[in-house]
Amino acid sequence: MSGQEAGGIGLGLFAALIGAGGIAAAIRTRRRRAEIAPTYGATGGIVYTVVQAGCSTLLLLGGLGLIAVAVIFKR
């Protein structure tokens, strides 16, 4: 495994990890909605959760794409 390949895989794993964490945070915030209802509603409510989960999903897919590109170009 070359350094460039390892760097691509490492960056992809990092992006995928951050994306997965963002999705988990969005779901966790949505579940705690009853405890923080006024704040949750003032910050956008479900729209905020959907946008956060959507952006995190794109980051997760981008990370997986980087890993795939690093593995494909290895050959």
By DSSP, the count of extended strands is: 0
**End-to-end gap:** 11 Å
Helix segment count? 3
Sequence stretches where pLDDT stays below 50 over 5 or more residues: none
Write a compact overview of the structure shown.
This protein has helices spanning 3-31, 37-42, 46-72. With 75 residues, it is mainly α.
Folded structure, characterized:
By secondary structure, this protein is mostly helical. It is 83% helix and 0% strand. The chain is built from 3 helices and no strands. It has helices at 3-31, 37-42, 46-72. Helix 1 packs antiparallel against helix 3. It is rod-shaped, with a radius of gyration of 16 Å. The N and C termini lie close together (11 Å). The mean pLDDT is 86.
List the helices and strands and how they pair.
Layout: H1 3-31, H2 37-42, H3 46-72
Helix pairs in contact: 1-3
Keyword list:
75 residues, 3 helices, mainly alpha, 0% strand
